[in-house]
Amino acid sequence: MNKKTIRIPAMLFLSGISSTSFAAGFALIEQSVTGLGRAFAGSAAVSEDASAQYFNPAALSYLKREEMDLAINFIAPRSEFNNDGSTIPSNGGDYSDAANNAFLPNFSYVKPLNEKLTLGFAVVSPFGLVTEYNESWVGRYSAVKSDLKTYNFNPSLAFKATDKLSIGFGVSAQYIDLTLTQMARLAGSDVKVKLEADDWAYGYNMGVIYDFTPSTRVGLSYRSKISHTLEGDGSIKQVGVEDNITGDVDLPETLSLALQQRLSQKWTVMADVTWTRWSRFQELKIESDGGTLSSTKEEKWENTLRYGIGLSYAHSDKWQFRTGIAYDETPVPSAQYRTARIPDTDRTWLAVGATYHYSDNLILDAGYAHLFADNPKINETTGSSRLSGDYDVNVDIVGVQLRWLH
């Protein structure tokens, strides 16, 4: 086999940094159950519980009691492929649904140190995907299995600078683990390609919240990019190909501007706009020690905006309710750059949620969101095969959370 023959599998790594994700691109925004209930609208200005620190560390200043939050999100995506003129070197069947149900846990903790300083710590998964097609499907030369996980450990500190101004800062230690497979056509037969790689990297986040009046609050937050250099192994076991691989991945920075406006003692409205710098994905490159799995793929992703507006209602001391709607842009510029690993597209969030105060020390939260998505078209070329068609996509998310306060 020459290098050109096995260059096709190298595209597996490059096209795989994406997800059937629940925010745009391959991001996971589900870091707060109370946030889920309002479609995460206004998250950079809201301080309902300890999970708010992920969206703005300055929110910690508004939490006056020690608190630990344990949350779990159940995510049920649907991603059905409809073939329309795909061309491949051998026959293959359509595949109905590549998306897998997933559980996404969160942990948040807050500890007021004194009247000015508040400490926080959160463990979240800000990026990820799990998708798996049948090994005989028509797009098997583009993708079979994609499993991307991130674990972000994020201590934060907030400072109450004045009665109106709070400032927060945090650092992140992030682990990424990636496993990807696809089929390749070699010597008239299908062979399975597998790539595994991981890495630790570091970043930071910071934010401010300013109370213009007792009823009007504005928040501004920033989360830095985190640059990973993944290292691992690539193999085509049927033909004895094994090699060390490396690849650079920049997980993008975000900037969010949010408003919380109290309308009355019972009603509060929230709104925000969040910018994500997905344009870092212009080109992805993988290198292998022997050169046989080295390749480059154009991505040409674009920066995106996410808009949200939400409403909360304090029904009583025991019950609060919330709802929200959001619009999330996709970074994928066209069908040419959309991959089988993620039929990413613009999506609209519609969400509801509730909080029940069981006691002075225990609070229960629940949220539900449905994501409506356009039917994304795909026209992906991998070597001598072309995957053409569209997807039917939607997502349901249910989250529950237990808050313990001391």
TrEMBL record:
InterPro entries, alphabetized: OMPP1/FadL/TodX
An annotated Gene Ontology molecular function: long-chain fatty acid transporting porin activity
SUPFAM superfamilies from the UniProt entry: Porins
Membrane-protein topology: Multi-pass membrane protein
Membrane found in the keyword field: yes
Family listed: Belongs to the OmpP1/FadL family.
Keywords of this entry: Cell outer membrane, Membrane, Signal, Transmembrane, Transmembrane beta strand
Predominant subcellular localization, coarse grouping: membrane
GO annotation, cellular component aspect: cell outer membrane
A UniProt-annotated Pfam family: Toluene_X
Secretion signal span: 1-23
Identification of the protein by name: Transporter
Subcellular location: Cell outer membrane
